[in-house]
Design a protein that fits this description.
Blueprint lengths: L9 H17 L4 E8 L2 E9 L12 E2 L4 H15 L34 H5 L46 H15 L3 H13 L16 E3 L6 E3 L15 E2 L1 H13 L7 H7 L14 E3 L4 E5 L2 E10 L2 E8 L4 E7 L7 H15 L15 H6 L1 E5 L2 E7 L5 E5 L7 E5 L5 E3 L8 E6 L5 E6 L2 E4 L22
Antiparallel strand pairs: 1-2, 1-11, 3-6, 4-5, 7-8, 8-9, 9-10, 10-11, 12-13, 12-19, 13-14, 14-15, 15-16, 16-17, 17-18, 18-19
Helix pairs in contact: 1-8, 2-4, 2-5
């Protein structure tokens, strides 16, 4: 895999290599590969190895563990967008309790059928974290031949929808759901509908040369132990895939931008919204959307996923603010902090070569009625400024540090739909006087007026006719 030599400045490339080298030494990993994507293109990739004069390149396969879950989530969201399912559907509507991926009879665990697809995608189903029996990642899938074998008793450990509880069996169920609705094995559906259209020819269920071997490194001695490479069977959707830094860079670009023949950018943006946890509360550091990890670092939210399997660690992170992404792959069971290294690769590029903003450009045209809406509005006594944006969009910006702001998308019926935070999904409509003058903005019953508590407006609860007074 050839990476454009002119993609980044020499000083930036050296800083990235230094971070990768430090990660390989401090993590005591046999090999480590890193890659950076900028504006959707792979601009840097390099590797470090325990072997003098040799380093893996961006075409060497590593096992990517739970990054596999991002692929499963995209498959499920494709089905949703096609109308084949709703995220609020209970699993049993599409995957009856007595049905497995092979069509044999086997129960899927008490209470599992009532769990919703959204709960499984966001790890809020309450399902157990791991399947019963020996460590599934280190034993053959033949020990769990049926879907019901991945669920113990009790299968559900927490009330559904109440808390985040990571569940590998939950994604085994989602993979079986995809297989049932498509009528083909999960891996074949993935190849046809996702991997092939995106050109991910080096992302496979089983390793294809050249690939790294997986190792455990002794904690107190510089010696290694080979890890087994097992086919996990029905648990495959939880962490089976192998991939390369080059393929995962393409995947990161897709997660950032979407692709018309796979999944839209709007649906991918929906997947990045927190499905549980703080949802914007101060102080949070990690969260989870629909098949995507969320990580707050350096004043921004990164999204993607980490992965681990015996002998391997992986991380994929995307920074929307900087239009950057990073991939890190290692062949060690423990040691290197793949996610931290990936976040540092993004930070290094952002600091050395900050994103050049697009130039300001005026609107091609402005509707006089919309232009008349702009300016100062008040929610009660709190001032806000309304701005006109592209495509007839509006943006409400609180002044003085109080109030709620949001962007609004124009709708064909003359209303606007909120895109951010509290007002996300809420409708903004303009209330006009008989002569057509805009007198109020109504956002889900929150009324904004031109003057603070304007006595001429129909304010809920009424306004003292004496107006503002001193005492």
């Amino acid at each position: 895999m050839t990476v454009p030599s002119g993609g980044l400045l020499p000083g930036t490339r050296r800083a990235l290599l230094h971070r990768l080298a430090v990660g390989q030494v401090e993590g005591r990993t046999p090999s480590l590969v890193g890659a950076v994507v900028r504006a959707g293109e792979l601009v840097w990739a390099d590797g470090r190895s325990m072997i003098d004069g040799h380093s893996p390149d961006a075409d060497v396969q590593y096992r990517i563990g739970s990054i596999t879950k991002t692929f499963v989530a995209v498959q499920v969201m494709r089905l949703r967008d096609e109308g084949a399912l709703d995220l609020a559907d209970p699993l049993e509507r599409h995957l009856p309790a007595a049905t497995t991926t092979t069509g044999a009879e086997a129960g899927t665990g008490a209470g599992v059928g009532s769990l919703t697809i959204a709960q499984l995608l966001g790890h809020t189903s309450g399902l157990a974290s791991e399947p019963p029996g020996p460590w599934w990642e280190r034993t053959p899938g033949t020990l769990r031949p049926q879907l019901g074998d991945v669920l113990g008793a009790p299968s559900v450990r927490h009330p559904a929808g109440r808390r985040f509880h990571y569940s590998n069996p939950g994604f085994a169920l989602l993979g079986a759901l995809v297989s049932r609705l498509r009528g083909q094995p999960w891996g074949e559906v993935l190849r046809q509908e996702v991997l092939a259209p995106l050109g991910l020819t080096r992302t496979t269920l089983t390793p294809q040369p050249p690939h790294a071997g997986g190792f455990a490194v002794h904690p107190w001695a510089d010696v290694m132990l080979p890890e087994p490479l097992e086919d996990t069977g029905v648990m495959a959707p939880a962490g089976q895939l192998w991939s390369t830094a080059a393929d995962l860079s393409r995947w990161a670009a897709f997660l950032a931008r979407g692709a018309d023949d796979v999944l839209s950018a709007d649906t991918l943006a929906e997947m990045r919204q927190p499905s549980s946890g703080p949802d914007g509360a101060d102080g949070w550091t990690t969260g989870y959307g629909l098949g995507l990890h969320l990580r707050r670092q350096d004043g921004q939210v990164l999204y993607g996923h980490d992965g681990s399997m015996p002998g391997f660690l992986a991380s994929l992170l995307v920074s929307p603010r900087d239009d950057l992404a990073a991939v890190v792959l290692a062949n060690a069971t423990a040691g290197p902090e793949a996610a931290l290294i990936g976040a540092d690769l993004i930070r290094i590029v952002a600091e050395h070569e900050p994103r050049i903003p697009e130039p300001w450009r005026p609107l091609a045209a402005a509707d006089p009625e919309l232009l008349a809406l702009t300016g100062l509005w008040h929610w009660g006594p709190a001032p806000h400024l309304l701005h006109l944006r592209a495509d007839r969009g509006l943006e409400l910006v609180p002044q003085g540090g109080t109030g709620r702001g949001a962007r609004f998308r124009a709708e064909p019926d003359g209303t606007w739909t909120g895109l951010d935070d509290y007002y996300a999904g809420e409708t903004l409509r303009v209330v006009r006087t008989p002569d057509g003058t805009a007198s109020q903005l109504d956002i889900g019953t929150f009324v904004f007026t031109r003057a603070p508590y304007d006595p001429a407006s129909d304010t809920p609860g009424g306004v003292d006719p004496g107006g503002w007074q001193t005492y």
